[in-house]
Task: inverse folding
């Protein structure tokens, strides 16, 4: 779901999405190869949370987890859910502050 979502975005929106997530288009393009290319490391929980929030509802943390860790059960244990929830809250605050600063 992540790859089709990202590929469907026009170039300007890809840049905006990457900026909202706190990364770059180049890094996202590299991450798109992660599941199939063992030389590309999977992203940390913090980045997956930021990517989910930056999608403004199009993707969830679970969508990204399933994309980057396809061999792992879709059910994430409670400890990881709590950490992901904390990261989502932090990333939402960061995004809201950035949008407010930009006058959006």
Result:
């Amino acid at each position: 779901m992540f790859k089709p979502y990202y590929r469907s975005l026009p170039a300007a929106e890809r840049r905006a999405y990457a900026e909202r997530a706190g990364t770059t288009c180049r890094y996202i393009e590299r991450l798109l190869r992660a599941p199939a290319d063992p030389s590309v490391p999977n992203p940390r929980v913090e980045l997956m949370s930021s990517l989910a929030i930056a999608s403004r509802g199009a993707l969830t943390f679970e969508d990204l987890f399933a994309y980057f860790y396809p061999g792992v059960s879709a059910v994430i244990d409670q400890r990881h859910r709590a950490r992901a929830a904390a990261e989502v809250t932090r990333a939402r605050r960061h995004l809201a502050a950035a949008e407010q600063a930009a006058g959006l």
